[in-house]
């Protein structure tokens, strides 16, 4: 869902059975304000927050391989610690993620062995691990 705690988020959480929420945010301060509000809103409506994903966590120059934290470093980790929640993983800022998504062939499909795809798969594994086990 889009960032924030507006009518859409409240309606979904109140009208559709939701097993858990994953909060995705960049590590910059302004985005973390919305991430905090989202986590607190889900807690208020009794939707478990499974954890955070730090999006666009690092950029690696494709030419020189220098790594930069364009949106800041570890902001999501710090927020998760403050709220007593886990970080499910990090997604890098990479042009292949944007390009493959735009062509309808996300990186996990078009480049499944890439580090970018592996980041998504690690997060998916963590989400599944945190979901409650259905009664048998």
From TrEMBL:
The keyword ATP-binding applies. One of its GO terms (biological process) is mitochondrial respiratory chain complex I assembly. The gene is NUBPL. This is NUBP iron-sulfur cluster assembly factor, mitochondrial. Transmembrane segments: none annotated. It comes from Sphenodon punctatus. InterPro entries: NUBPL-like, P-loop_NTPase, YlxH/NBP35. GO terms for molecular function: 4 iron, 4 sulfur cluster binding; ATP binding. Keywords: ATP-binding, Nucleotide-binding. Coiled coil: none annotated. GO terms for cellular component: mitochondrion; plasma membrane.
